[in-house]
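Morning - zinc ion inputs below, output right after.
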Amino acid sequence: MISNFTLKGNKIILKNTGEYFGALGDFEYNIGDKLYEFAIMENKEFDKLKAIYSQLIRLVCYAKEIDSKEEKLDCFFKMFQIVRACLNFSPYTHFYTQILIDIIVKTYNTKTFRTDLLFKSQIGVLIEDSKYYPDEIYRDLEEDEYTPEILFIKWNEEIEKISKKKHTEYMKFFETIRDLLIENLIEKKTDLKDRLELISKYSNNSLVRNLSVPEKIFLYDAKRVFDLNYFNTKPAHALFLDTKFKIKYVCDTIFSPQERKLDVDKIVDIIKEKNIVAEEVYELENAEEQIRFELFKVIQNNFVINKCENCGRLFIPATTSNNPYQKGRNDQKYCNNPYLNTGKTCKEIGALNKQKEKAQESRIQAEFNREYKRMHGLHYNHQKAFKEKKFKEWSKKARELRDSFKDKDDQLDEFKIELQKLSNMYYIIDK
Ligand SMILES: [Zn+2]
C-alpha cells in the first residue's frame, strides 16, 4: 500500500483522503517528536492499541454483517474516526490499521482468510497457523485500486448471511491478525530504540555534527542505524542510500481546456494569480519506510537526541529557541520526566546528584569536614576551655577560609596548613 507524505517546516504530513482506508484528512506530526515517543513506549502501552483494534474489528464486522445501507454508511464514517484514534496513538500504526481493515472487509467478501494481503503489504508478518496460509488464487491476484470510491463499494458489497459459527471463526482470525500486527509494531519500536540510541551516541559529537549530510548518513549506515536486523547481502553502505523515497509533485488545481490553450505568459499570470503551488510528495509503502524517512530527516537536520543519565530514556533536549530543530549542541544530561515515584523529575534528581558529587569531589570540602568534626568534638568535650561562642567564631572563619580555597583542590596542602593555624588560635591540645 502506498501513502503520500509531505514536509512542511518541521512537520511531516500524512496526506490522505480515505484511500487505502487511511484517515480522511491530513495528519501532521513534528519530525522526531512522535518517533522518540514511540521508541520509548512501554510494551504495556500497546494494550491501548489492542483495545482500539478490537473496537475496529467489531465495527467492521458489524458493518459487513448488517443489511441496512444507512447503517453501513454510518459505520464507514465511524471507521475513519477509529483510524484517527490509531494515528493519535502513534502515526506508525498507519499502514497496520489499513491492512487490518482491508483483511476484514475482503475476508467477508471472498469467504477466504485473506492473509495474502499481509504478504502483499510486505510488512514482514509471518503466519504460523497453516489454516491461515495465504490462498494461492489470491496470492497472485492483483488488488483493485484503493481509492475511497472503490473501497466504499467493497465495504458495501453484499455477502451471504453469516452463521454464528462462521462469525466466531472469523473473529478468531481477525484477532490473530490484530495480535500479529501489534507484535510486529512492537518489534519495530524495539528496533527503532536501538537505532535512536546509536544516533544519540553521535548526534551531540561536534565532529559528527560538522559532517555533510551524505557523510553523516554514510557514518550512521556504517554504524548500522539503518539496517539493524536486516539480513541483506548488499554492502552495508549501499543499503540506506539505495532506499529511494519516490518523489512526485501534486497540484490541487487543474487548468481548464481554454486555459491550457493560452500563451505561456498568460498561464504564468494565472499561476501567480491563483497562487498555484505543486506540493512535493513522498510515496512511502510501509511503516519501515515511514520510520526510515523520518530518521533520515532527523539526521539531515542535525537533531540532538540525548539519553537520560538517570532513567536511560531517550529525549530531545529542551531549547529556548522557537525552532527546536535548528539548535546546536546540547549538553542537557537529564530528561524532564518524573522518576519512578520519587515525586521528582530526573532533572531535579540530577541536580541533587550533582551537588552530592561536588561535595564528594572537593578535597578542600572533605578536609574542612574532617577538621570541623575534630573541633566540634573538642568543644563538646571541653566546654569550659573552648566555649560555644569561640567555637562559632572558629567555624565562621573556617568556612570563610574554605570558601577562599573553593575549586582549588590543587592547593590542598596550603589549605590544610592555614586551617590548622586557625584552629591552633582557638584550641591547642596539650601534648
Ligand atoms: Zn530521565
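Note: The chain has two domains: 1-296, 362-426.

O.
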